[in-house]
Design brief:
Strand content: 5-15%
Shape: globular
Structural class: alpha/beta
CATH superfamily of the largest domain: Periplasmic binding protein-like II
CATH class of the largest domain: Alpha Beta
Distance between the termini: 34 Å
Number of helices: 19
Number of domains: 2
CATH architecture of the largest domain: 3-Layer(aba) Sandwich
Length: 420
C-alpha cells in the first residue's frame, strides 16, 4: 500500500515497457475452470485478500479464483508485457484508480457492460460514489471499486489535550491549530507535525486552495499561486520548527510519544497498534473548520479486465460472480485498515468500531474524499514524490521547483500518442 505514487510512472512509459517482451511465468497459466487474479497486495494486506479468496473458493463456485499477489511495480510492468503479447493475460486484476483512464485510452480494457445484467447489485447506489465514478468512461463501465483509501492524520490524545485542547471537538484540525500547538510544545521538545508522504499532503492542500491538476483533462496546471501557497504553508511550518527536522523519522517520533500530529494513510493503522499511548484518527490538516470545504486525498483499488482473447464470456461471468461476492463480503478487507467501497460494509457492527470508518459513516466525510483521477496522475506522482521534500526542506526554491515540474509534465505528456 505504502507510497502508491512511487510506481504510477511505470504505465506512462508504454512504449518502453512494451519493448521489454519476455515470457510470463508458468504460475500465471490457468485451467478452464480457474480465474487468474492478479493484485498488488504483496504486503500484510495480501493475507487479508488471500483469506477472502479462500472463503470464496469454499463456496464451490463454477470458476475458482487463483490468487496471485505481485509487487506493485512488477505487476504493472508485467501486465504491459503480457497485454502486448496477447498471451497469459490475467482474467481479473486490481489496479489503482489513477491508472484507469490511460489504460482505457490505450484500448487495453474490456467493458463490464454485457455481464452486469446478471449481477444487478453491482450498481452505483451500492458503492461509495467517488470510487464508483472512476470506472465510468465513455458511457461504459470499465472497473468496479474494491475500496477507497485515504490520507488522514493520527494524533496523540494526551499531547493534544496538553497542547491543543479543543482542537478535535469538531474532528477537524486546522493548520492554524497545528501551528499554535507546535509553537507551544517546542519548549518541551515535543514536535507538532510530522513531514511524511508529501504527495497526498500537498494535493489535499492544493485542492483546498482551489487548485486543479488540469483544466481541460490533458494539459497540466501546477505552476500557479495555489500550488505555491500549498508548499509555502509547509515551508513556513518547517522554518518555525513546528515540524520534524530533515533526517528525523516522524513515525518513530510518534511511537515514542514525541509528536502530536502524524499525517498518514488509513492503511498505516496496523503499524501503530503497538503504541504505548492512546491515539486517534481524524481528517487530514485543513485550512478551515468548514466541513463543506474539507479535502482528504484518496485513491481506490479497482477490479478490471484487460483485453484477452483467451477469456470466454462464461469466464467473464465468473469474474463478475467473484466481484459481486466481494461486494457482500468485504469485512476482511476492512480488517486490513481499508475502507471498502461497497456500502454494505456499513451494516457490519465490527466495521462501525474501526478507526477508519468515520470517513464512510458520515455523508459529509464521504464528500471530502477526493480521488485525483487526472489521466497523467502517474507523471504528477513521479514529480511530487521526487521533489516535494526538497521544496519543504528549503533545498529547492518553490518557484523554480514548480516551474521544473510543470515543464517536465508538459514534455512527458507531449509524447503520449493517445492525444494525437
Amino acid at each position: 500500500m505504502r507510497k502508491l505514487g512511487l510506481v504510477f510512472m511505470t504505465i506512462m512509459l508504454v512504449a518502453a515497457l512494451a519493448a521489454c517482451g519476455g515470457k510470463s511465468s508458468g504460475s500465471n497459466s490457468s485451467s478452464s475452470k480457474e480465474i487468474v487474479f492478479w493484485n498488488p497486495f504483496a504486503g500484510p494486506d495480501g493475507q487479508n485478500m488471500k483469506k477472502m479468496v479462500d472463503e470464496y473458493n469454499k463456496t464451490n463456485p463454477k470458476y475458482k479464483i487463483k490468487n496471485i499477489s505481485l509487487k506493485e511495480g512488477d505487476m504493472y510492468k508485467k501486465i504491459q508485457t503480457v497485454e502486448n503479447s496477447g498471451k497469459n493475460v490475467p482474467d481479473l486484476m486490481i489496479v489503482h484508480a489513477e491508472r484507469i483512464k490511460l489504460y482505457h485510452d490505450n484500448k487495453m480494457l474490456t467493458s463490464f457492460d454485457k455481464y452486469l445484467k446478471d449481477y444487478p447489485e453491482i450498481k452505483a447506489e451500492n458503492y461509495m460514489q467517488e470510487a464508483w465514478k472512476i470506472g465510468d468512461l465513455d458511457g461504459s463501465r470499465y472497473s468496479v471499486p474494491l475500496d477507497i483509501h485515504s490520507s488522514v492524520m493520527y494524533y496523540n490524545k494526551d499531547l493534544v489535550e496538553k497542547y491543543a485542547p479543543g482542537a478535535l471537538d469538531d474532528n477537524i484540525v486546522t493548520y492554524d491549530e497545528i501551528e499554535a500547538a507546535g509553537e507551544k510544545s517546542q519548549k518541551d521538545k515535543i514536535t507538532g507535525l510530522g513531514i511524511t508522504w508529501m504527495k497526498p499532503i500537498f494535493l489535499s492542500l492544493y485542492a483546498q486552495n482551489g487548485g486543479k491538476l488540469t483544466e481541460n483533462g490533458t494539459d497540466p496546471t501546477i505552476h500557479n499561486d495555489q500550488a505555491k501557497a500549498a508548499f509555502q504553508k509547509w515551508i513556513d511550518l518547517y522554518k518555525e520548527h513546528v515540524t520534524n527536522k530533515d533526517g528525523e523519522d516522524p513515525l518513530q517520533l510518534f511511537l515514542q510519544g514525541k509528536l502530536i500530529f502524524y499525517p498518514e494513510g488509513i492503511w498505516m493503522n496496523n503499524n501503530l497498534k503497538d503504541a504505548k499511548f492512546d491515539y486517534g484518527l481524524t481528517n487530514a490538516p485543513q485550512l478551515s473548520n468548514d466541513k463543506s470545504k474539507m479535502v482528504n486525498w484518496s485513491s481506490s483499488h479497482q477490479f478490471v479486465m484487460f483485453n484477452s482473447k483467451e477469456r470466454t464470456d462464461e469466464k467473464a461471468k465468473g469474474v463478475l460472480a467473484f466481484v459481486d461476492w466481494v461486494r457482500d463480503h468485504s469485512l476482511e478487507w476492512a480488517k486490513a485498515g481499508q475502507n471498502p467501497a461497497s456500502l454494505k460494509i456499513l451494516d457490519e457492527p465490527e466495521y462501525q468500531k474501526m478507526a477508519q470508518s468515520f470517513l464512510l459513516k458520515d455523508p459529509v466525510e464521504q464528500a471530502s474524499l477526493k480521488i485525483f483521477d487526472y489521466k497523467y496522475n502517474g507523471y504528477v506522482s513521479e514529480e511530487l514524490d521526487a521533489k516535494s521534500l526538497d521544496i519543504v526542506f528549503g533545498k529547492n526554491p518553490v518557484d523554480k521547483a514548480l516551474a521544473d515540474i510543470q515543464k517536465s509534465l508538459e514534455d512527458k505528456i507531449s509524447k503520449d500518442n493517445t492525444n494525437k
